[in-house]
């Protein structure tokens, strides 16, 4: 049995790709395009059509590779369990749900609950979260990440929502461990047209921005 990835492995590439609302038959090609562009952590949101089956297919396809597949938009224990049975290696939530964190801890899987305030961040860590997702990041910007890291330097933060190549470097410089990206990375029109090279190019651009931020720290 392959051990579940550590937080360091999940955030190594610096980007969590958020797949939301994609047609199930496009998931693997999209995942391969992301991988080619250097993004190796992929989240399929639970509110997507056929999400659990999609996670299962992606996890099976990428088993034994550097690509890690997880579930997003998980807000209850039932969905967390279904995602874990499908092969999720991490679980992301838009808000703080201790039952989801507890479920992940029970099976040794990383959890990234959504938070916005220091109180929520501390509650998440006390509940056993691996990292926290500042969401929606576009409402507060990179400065908020830096403000949270001030008193909570041990916090691993993954800002998500409105993050792209134009601001990813700022988030990393502010102290983020990685960034989550959906719309700036997953071009649905390109996918519908079968032009997966666009996804690879977007991934390369975003990974480069993250690397710039890490190099300047």
Provide the descriptors you would attach to this structure in a database record.
217 residues; alpha/beta; TIM Barrel; four-stranded parallel β-sheet; two-stranded parallel sheet; 42% helix; Aldolase_TIM
Describe this structure in words.
One of its GO terms (molecular function) is lyase activity. Belongs to the KHG/KDPG aldolase family. It comes from Halarchaeum acidiphilum MH1-52-1. Keywords: Carbohydrate metabolism, Lyase. Pathway: Carbohydrate acid metabolism. With 217 residues, this protein is an alpha/beta fold. It has one domain: TIM Barrel, CATH 3.20.20. Helix content is 42%, strand content 13%. The protein is built from ten helices and eight strands. A four-stranded parallel β-sheet has the order 3-2-1-8. Strand 2, helix 3 and strand 3 form a beta-alpha-beta unit. The longest helix has 20 residues. The mean pLDDT is 96.
Radius of gyration, whole Å:
16 Å
Tally the structural domains: 1
The separation of the N and C termini measures 37 Å
Secondary structure tally: strands? 8
Reported for the largest beta sheet, the result is: 4 strands, parallel
Subunit structure: Homotrimer.
Family: Belongs to the KHG/KDPG aldolase family.
Organism: Halarchaeum acidiphilum MH1-52-1
Keywords: Carbohydrate metabolism, Lyase
Write the layout of secondary structure elements.
Blueprint: H1 7-10, E1 15-19, H2 27-36, E2 41-45, H3 51-61, E3 68-72, H4 77-85, E4 90-92, H5 98-106, E5 110-112, E6 114-115, H6 118-127, E7 133-134, H7 142-149, H8 168-173, E8 179-181, H9 188-192, H10 197-216
Parallel strand pairs: 1-2, 1-8, 2-3, 4-5, 6-7
Helix pairs in contact: 2-10, 4-5
């Amino acid at each position: 049995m392959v051990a579940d990835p550590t937080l360091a492995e999940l955030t190594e590439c610096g980007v969590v790709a958020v797949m939301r609302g994609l047609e199930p038959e496009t998931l693997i090609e999209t995942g391969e395009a992301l991988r080619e562009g250097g993004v190796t952590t992929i989240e399929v949101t639970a509110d997507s059509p056929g999400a659990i089956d999609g996670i299962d297919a992606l996890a099976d396809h990428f088993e034994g590779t550097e690509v890690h597949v997880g579930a997003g938009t998980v807000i209850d224990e039932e969905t967390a369990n279904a995602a874990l049975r499908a092969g999720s290696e991490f679980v992301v939530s838009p808000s703080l749900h201790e039952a989801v964190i507890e479920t992940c801890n029970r099976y040794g899987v990383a959890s990234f609950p959504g938070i916005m305030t220091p109180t929520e961040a501390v509650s998440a860590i006390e509940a056993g979260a691996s990292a926290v997702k500042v969401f929606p990041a576009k409402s507060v910007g990179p400065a908020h990440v830096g403000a949270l890291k001030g008193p909570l330097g041990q916090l691993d933060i993954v800002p998500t929502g409105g993050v792209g190549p134009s601001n990813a470097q700022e988030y990393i410089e502010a102290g983020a461990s990685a960034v989550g990206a959906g719309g700036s990375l997953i071009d649905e029109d390109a996918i519908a047209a079968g032009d997966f090279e666009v996804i690879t190019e977007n991934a390369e651009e975003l990974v480069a921005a993250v690397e710039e931020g890490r190099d300047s720290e």
